[in-house]
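for ur thesis appendix - Oxidoreductase. copy paste whatever u need, i formatted it the way the template wanted (i think)
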Amino acid sequence: MSKTLIIGASGKIGKMTTELLLKNEQNVVALVRDKNKLSDLKSPFLSIVEQDLEGDFSNALKGCDQVIFAAGSGGSTGDDKTVLIDLWAATKAANYAREHSTKHFIMVSSIGADDPDSIDGDLKPYLVAKHMADEHLINSGLNYTIIRPATLTDEKASLAVTTERPKDSDKAKISRENVANALLHIATNSPNSNRIFELFDGDKPIKSAVK
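the 3d part is after this line
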């Protein structure tokens, strides 16, 4: 059976995705800085690796067929952590995946990462980091899926999404649970071609919207 490494498994989306994969009896390696944050997860399909993304975490990829990079520096940190986690750790993860001949790399990016210059303000350094990490993955030679979620909310999963950007910018949002369920679908239905798409709450079942 395949094994998926989730980088950032104690974050909101990362933990939701970990739980969903475990419920579907998928082998998961959860990479976290503090394993106590996953103390409530008990499963024979789970193994936890405790490492800092600012260091060398290459051993975590050993034996993993697939990687989900769901780590993020968080909104309360400075630009230094954005560079170290959202850019540098993501870049290292892709390098490690190539070294370990990982079959599929799933990157949780962000809406706006395709064109950071279209955004002004405090969010721009984050989008630049995401853009550069995405570009590195695209050029890595790995099979990849890059998801660019819209503004994240804590709403319950509707299990209905769209990859088409709404004309009304106020509707350009998506629940974290919907993102996690989309990641579950992608992780258990590995694509035959590389893909990049934005993701929003919508009206299509995840399995048809995220083909």
